[in-house]
Amino acid sequence: MAKKQCPNCGITWLELSIPVEGQKTSCMCEKTFVFQNGNWHEGFPYFEEYQRLAERTANNGQGAMQRLGNFGMGIAGETAEFIDAVVNFEIAGGNHEAMIKEAGDVNWYCATLCTTAGISYQVVVEAAEEAAPALLYVCIGRLSKASGDVTEYLKKVVYHGHELDQAKLGKLIGNVLSWMKLFCKRYNLNMQDICDTNIAKLKQRYPEGFNSAGSINRTI
């Protein structure tokens, strides 16, 4: 993997591929760029596009409440898998690719939850401030709690009859992303590359959009 440098803040991160004309990216400083004429130029809402692409591979045959329950459970499971990838990286010789894959799945659930609730994922990502640095076990615990808070809140909405509060759900999702941003900084990863990898995987798994057979028989 090569390295990429943000033309705004100078932060360098791992790059999964050589940029091509028209490629879009974003940085931890929240600036967004498009690659044109051999250089990165500022200006486009990357996470709006990611939210649209993520929705293409969601199960649109479900009602809103069923989706909220599904995605609320999913974000907890994928956060656990991301944490497992982090632990393997630290103590068992893991790799960046595993963390990138699992982080992409966490982002997918965050984005599709936002879509279901009528929330802009771009706004949530930009509003989520990177969490303060802490010991690794503290970061793992805080990320786990943030994810659990989303699941707990959606349990009350879906099964206990609580009214959905967009602002509250957006804040809870933002808390998850705050810790994800810190992990990205710790391991020199970039959120846009994570999301690009996630969309590429899902396009391969569901070339025509989500279908149950593809989910049941998936190998990707």
Automatic annotation (TrEMBL):
InterPro entries listed in its UniProt record:
MazG-related_GP37
Q: Which CDD domains match?
A: NTP-PPase_u4
Could you tell me which SUPFAM superfamilies the record lists for this protein?
A: all-alpha NTP pyrophosphatases (SSF101386)
What is the protein's name according to its record? MazG-like nucleotide pyrophosphohydrolase family protein
Lineage, top ranks: Bacteria, Bacillati, Bacillota, Negativicutes, Selenomonadales
